[in-house]
Amino acid sequence: MSDNYITITTSREVSEPIELKNKVIEFLQSKEYVERELSDCVLNMKNKGYRPGKNHVSAIGYDEDLLSLNVCGLEFKTQREVMNAGAFTAMTKMECPNCNKNRFEGITPQDFFTDNCTKEQLELFHSVFPQFDSWTNGYEAKLKCPHCLTESKIENYKTDNSISFSNFGLTFWNWSDLTNEFIEELKTVIRTDIIRINGHI
Ligand SMILES: [Zn+2]
């Protein structure tokens, strides 16, 4: 069975991810969107999460019997990570900071998943992962743009909601939606631009 998730992540790194996490969790618990105790309710084996609280239905917008699922919790990420890079969702945009052209221009996710890409196009995807690893581990990571051939740091590439270079994220496992009101509330607590990523693994 595949599990779906919605990740809310800052569009870039924040300076105090742990403090921000504490602030956000306090807010979510005070509104009873999630429970107070950590439990085994997320897909990540190394991590525990917060199960949906009494008021979670108002964050989702409708009741979908979320509590009947084993994987239904909220997981926090507070370390550098290319958010969503490991998902079965194709990256769609990495725009070069020098020429503003998209590295994946002309490649649709459908092309990608139906093996409809040329070897050169596939190489544009595969070549990013070693750089993602370097960045995640705190090293400098650069990519050469296929259009203007300029090398730039990966965090300076502009992305859409398919990936994000961040150190702060909230992953809602199997929450099928989040209302705009809820996301606005989160924004006022996080106080940095946020991106919503939908994915499944
Ligand atoms: Zn370029």
Provide the descriptors you would attach to this structure in a database record.
single chain, 6 helices, two-stranded antiparallel ribbon, TATA-Binding Protein, alpha+beta, 12 strands, 201 residues, binds zinc ion, 2 domains
Folded structure, characterized:
By secondary structure, the protein is of the alpha+beta class. It has 2 domains: 4-82 and 163-200, 2-Layer Sandwich (TATA-Binding Protein); 90-159, no CATH class. The chain is 26% helix and 24% strand. The chain contains 6 helices and 12 strands. The protein has helices at residues 17-30, 56-60, 109-113, 119-126, 128-136, 180-190, and strands at residues 4-10, 34-39, 49-52, 74-77, 81-83, 94-95, 142-144, 151-153, 158-159, 164-166, 169-173, 194-200. The chain has a 4-stranded antiparallel beta sheet with strand order 4-11-1-12, with no helix packed on it. A two-stranded antiparallel ribbon has the order 2-3. The chain starts with a strand and ends with a strand. The mean pLDDT is 94. The chain binds zinc ion.
**Which CATH first-tier class of the largest domain would you pick?**
Alpha Beta
Provide the succession of SSEs.
EHEEHEEEHHHEEEEEHE
Q: The CATH topology of the largest domain, please? A: TATA-Binding Protein
Instruction: Tally the beta strands.
Output: 12
The proportion of residues in beta strands is: 15-25%
- Give the % helix: 25-40%
Radius of gyration from CA coordinates: 18 Å
The helix-and-strand class reads alpha+beta
Mean pLDDT across every amino acid position: 94
Kindly, what is the distance between the CA atoms of the first and last residues, rounded to a whole number of angstroms? 9 Å
Strand order of the largest sheet: 4-11-1-12
Overall number of structural domains: 2
Main sheet characteristics: 4 strands, antiparallel
From the coordinates shown, what is the CATH architecture of the largest domain? 2-Layer Sandwich
DSSP summary: helix tally: 6
Bound molecules: zinc ion
How does the overall form come out from the CA principal axes?
A: globular
Uncertain spans? none
